Queue: 4 jobs
Job 1
Amino acid sequence: MSNAGFIASRRRFLIGGALAAGGLLAPGLRNAVWAAGSDAPEKTQLRVGFIPLTDCAPLVMAALKGFDKKHGVSLQLSKEASWAAVRDKLTSGELDAAHALYGMIYGLHLGIAGPQRAMANLMTLNNNGQAITLSNQLKAQGVTDGVALQKRVAASEPGRYSFAHTFPTGTHAMWLYYWLASVGIDPFRQLRLLVVPPPQMVMNMKIGNMSGFCVGEPWNQRAISDNVGYTVVTSQQVWPDHPEKILATRARWVSENPHSARALTAAVLEAARWIDASDANRRETALAIAGRAYLNTKAETITGRMLGQYEDGLGRRWQDAHGLRFFHDGAVSYPWLSDGIWFLTQFQRWGLLKQQPDYLAVARAINRTDIYRQAASAAGNITVPQSEMRSSTLIDGRVWDGRDPAAWATGFAIKR
């Protein structure tokens, strides 16, 4: 091909990538754009942020096991102190991609979680594996479930009890609000709400700054191990196999680096599949991420819940049927549109959005099913669902399937 021909071809490729990033091409045409050009990653050294939580594991193992090199990229992992730091570095371009809260990325795209940026979700990193912890002070007062908590809150002045989550539009805020409302507590009218970085949760509860929090592991188990609090409900009890963290980046980064985006996603997909392949792999993962460079905690604090072995700090132990999942035959990893739409309904429910969005259009713009399909093909032997929607039954018995989101958003008794 002549130099002029190459330049013209490259220009067509970049224009096609930009259109795909905006959701303006049908999935088949998006894939055709990719197939038309070279598949070499445009950028090979990728700076990827993470928060020290168990569910950063696919990123860590992608780097440690060499899945990144297999796909022609090198992950330079950057440990961050808070989700706000992840947000700021991701939007400024200091990070190429990040382990991120599902709802945080949707909030950024809409301009309600910081300066508006067009964002992209390349894949879901995990399902389940979060929890709501209550303080031992509440346990001493006989509060061991949601019913008892509701009675105590109802008998107290508004704001008497403080509850923390990790980011205003994040997953932990949504699980906390949903569960509280399901037991009859209005989080905005009856409680004092705090935003606290995950590694600071246990210490803040220990010194009496909060009565409860919602966060990822290992901090719920750590509260039990340190005799500070107990698990009142897991996130998978709120929504079995719920979406949690995602592999996030900016839409512009994808349009400028579509092959790097595919390579990064394929590498993390392979790591997720490897982790879920056996308990031995999960144990190895727990040992690896426990290190100082990652979670900096004891491996045994991570391993139990990584294997689905739960205790609640109240004397109950069980093997969780919906424990932390990273792959599950690809069902975890696929960026279901219905998952993204659910977060939009909760933003509407809790007054974070002032008007109903175009639910499906927003989800299609953010959740890059086109990149995911390419990555699944590159990783090999990964089944891609035929539908972009899935159905789930939540703790209050309501069935979510992505249809009629406006009615879902406005159909709750407790809302703002």
Job 2
Amino acid sequence: MIPAHQFGFRKKHSALEQIHRIVDAMEKSFEEKKVCTAAFIDVSQAFDRVWHPGLLFKLKINLPHCFYKFFESYLSERYFRVKYNESYSSIQKILAGVPQGSVLGPILYQIYTVDLPQNEGVITGTFADDTAAMAIHEDPNTAAKLLQENLCEISKWAQKWKLKINASKSAHIVFTYRRVPEVPIIMNGETIPTTNEVKYLGMHLDKRLTWKPHLTAKRKQIDLKLRNMYWLIGYRSPLSLFNKLLLYKATLIPIWTYGIQLWGCAKQSNINIIQRVQNKILRTITCAPWYIRNETLHYDLNMKHIRNYAKQYAKAHNNRLQRHSNKLAKELLEEENNIRRLQRTKPNELAKNP
């Protein structure tokens, strides 16, 4: 019952695979000299705005009667009140929203949004309430028209089911190498802000997919974390070399390895943004003098370079996609037979490259 494009709160599904779908569509548009125009939609208070009568209607038509009666009992007769200092508000009945923090809450939201409009020629990707819609075409005006039609359908659907879409917090971006005229995208009577960079599921995507904004943001995040824990791994720390290295692996490496299966395809000059900070940290940990080579530090500490980390993670990612239960995820491994126009490494090729 749950659509294939929904990757949130599902077994063996992750945000990385959804981002991979978005990136794969962008890569194909680059190769075919097409324009990929996308909208990343912000749903205000999505879980709190689930309309109970509408949810029960969808449960009734999609589930057996015994399940419907269970959920009807689960959602009905719920009340709340607010406490401020020693004062209490009057008791009010809960008429909308799924119980957050519960196991059933995400499932109920998935069922509530199961009929999200999907137009032909538009790629839809959802992870819980994070929604992306992409239209690809040779003509930028046609791509914008396809996207606009789909967003109009989504807007009508959201109004019908009492969900609020915040156009000002949504983002519109055109992924292309070409110079194209800016075509405004409108939703709920408001123009969605057009940007050259968007953050989706924790990853920064720029219009040419260079990954430089994402790696720069990760570098700043690492620097902030490193500043807070310098007293533990710095020159004056009493900890042993083993413990310092363990702290780096446990707290700092997970910051930049998120999404490395995708951003590992970036140019070496951009990957060096992270490589330089790792070199700096290893020198700090070991108190190494200036004449010790970075390659020596990596070899002695048994640490991989960033490019080798990317290949390792990409290989595990490809193996997981081969066994995936979702057809949309398996399609990411399909190789095209046409001649490659751009010298770009794709995520599914990263593990194969020497």
Job 3
Amino acid sequence: MKALRFTQHGDPGVLAIGDLPKLTPSADEAVVQVFAASINPSDVKNVEGRMSQTTLPRTPGRDYAGVVIEGPAAWLGAEVWGSGGDVGFTRDGTHAEQVVVPVASLRRKPANLTFEEASAIGVNFIAAWCGVVEAAQVQAGETIVIIGLGGVGGAAAQIAKRIGAKVVGVARGAAATSPYVDAMVDSQGPDVIERIRAVTNGGAAVVFDTVGGSMFETAIHMLKVGGRLVEISATDRREVTFNLADFYHNESRLIGVDTLKRDLVASAEMLEALRPGFEDGSYKAPSIAQIFALEDAQTAYRAMAAGTNGRVVLTPQTKRT
């Protein structure tokens, strides 16, 4: 069984294809033949050594889509998808021809998604679900401001819109358009907070900040009384400040979300909750920019590290016709 491996941290040059022994699952595990596995920024960080929990040697990769080839009879031949905050870090990941996963984490992929599309859902939509549904508990009729409309922000907009919330996007230049966003505000504008307060009638019930760091001080002033600020990243700055008196007088709430705390089984529950939205067309799979064979993984990782616009996907196995 071929798998992408790294025995030391560094740039994508440390990645190599290894021949591993046949996988031997336990009674509560299954083997999935991986037809597609996307590369996430966290996978690149993992190889670089920026994930302290990772143990070496390791096969990276969090997201996958494929077919069950060994496990309970009821699952054999099933087309499945998955993701997890443990896989690729403390257990071997999905950038391989096959992966061992807990039977409890198996979930059937939406039939209307290709393997490549299904493999590109995981981390982004799980982070969005954690922020919008679990942490912020967004309700129909509320207004949510989403800072950054990349992979996670775009997924969050779709989830919030399906709930019935009003969605305001904040992005550089505010040129982005989306059927899931009701209004856009330029993050670099001198009056960004005033603009947000205008389009939200005094402040947002929820601000979902996918950027963090330099946007934190701005984000916290976008909240209405009792508003919730969800943070998932510290992209360019780890330490921030805010006026504590203003914070408690506004009865604001600050919530952190870390998807690495959701293992394969916990992530599976979120993917199952997301399934109806993909099946009825409410959610759209992200665009796939490039597809690479497993043998070209170094090039694929470099493309992701360079900031490719769209998803980068590995195809370890040739999918079935």
Job 4
Amino acid sequence: MTTPSVLFVCVHNAGRSQMAAGFVRALAGDRIEVRSAGSMPAEQINPIAVAAMAEVGIDITAEQPKVLTTEAVQASDAVITMGCGDACPFFPGKRYEDWGLEDPAGQGIEAVRPIRDDIRARVEALVAELAPLG
């Protein structure tokens, strides 16, 4: 059986998509291949997103925003967008979901925690679907 792969996409690849990828790595380990990218990547990950993830024991400090490529989309089974709209490439046969999540950019930790928790719940459901435990 091949390992399912998921690509999380948001505009800057600095907050939502990085938190989602961090949760997949923490919850699924090597059962799911994970990528994240942005249509207009930021210079660095949002430090508030890093702090919010650290609160739940997940370290995303080593991650860097990456530019969204056609190859990343083609190599993924599921493409989860987080508000990038028309900037996301579309390929027939791929599974697409759009998670309407508030952008944590420029927000304080109090505002980012509920976004993080929403992402965690969505990722838990996605992991259970893509790579259920025996």
